[in-house]
């Protein structure tokens, strides 16, 4: 073997050794990274907690808590909405791009809504209702319309109505009152089941004997005047008839 060939062979061997060394270091580094990942995963392993969030001292979470108070019955919402008859027309502006509401108005993307309350589903002649809505054997009563306005897709699965719905009960009640007013034969309002927000809360008791013991008699002002002066006394007690003006008998 010539000296030149021997030199080339030695250079090739050196390059192979360097390549093998580099590859070994790369494999070793990869092995160390993998091992570290496995170890750290076991040490810091986390699981999804049963209850999300962080507990705060002094605050108890009630079951079913959703961040909002339970909605009032629709009859109460209607009674409260009646105090502002203009609100329904404002809410209807969200519907006006698809519906007309004037008597004899043309159908648009949606049917004309004049006289809708109390009518069967799919009652407008010539309008192509979805089978999901037209197939519901019901009329547009207060409860039905409330459910529809809350979520059309839930009320009639498969409906062509793309409106997401009105989440606020006050808005739905105001809109229903407006729809009901746009009719020759509006539906009667359902009776409210309790005090409404518009009424300012529960009424104050008017019983004059409120706060007295069960068997304690209630004395009116007239009865107090008729009693002997000595029986009714104290600051603020009513004067007996002719009280201060009567002359005392002289000795």
Which blocks of ≥5 consecutive residues have pLDDT under 50? 54-67, 198-214, 230-249
Q: What class would the helix/strand composition place it in?
A: mainly alpha
Q: Helicity, in percent?
A: 25-40%
Shape: elongated
| CATH fold-level assignment of one domain | Cytochrome Bc1 Complex, Chain D, domain 2
How many whole angstroms does the radius of gyration measure? Answer: 42 Å
Distance from N terminus to C terminus (CA atoms, Å) equals: 166 Å
Q: How do the helices and strands follow one another from N- to C-terminus?
A: HHHHHHHH
CATH class of one domain: Mainly Alpha
Multimerization status: single chain
- Share in β-strands: under 5%
- Biggest sheet record: none
* Number of DSSP-assigned strands: 0
CATH architecture of one domain: Orthogonal Bundle
CATH superfamily of one domain: Cytochrome c-like domain
Mean pLDDT: 74
Q: What is shown here, in short?
A:
The protein is mainly α and 251 residues long. It is built from eight helices and no strands.
Q: How do the helices and strands line up, and which of them pair or pack?
A:
Layout: H1 3-43, H2 74-81, H3 87-92, H4 131-134, H5 142-150, H6 152-155, H7 169-181, H8 221-226
Helix pairs in contact: 2-7, 5-7
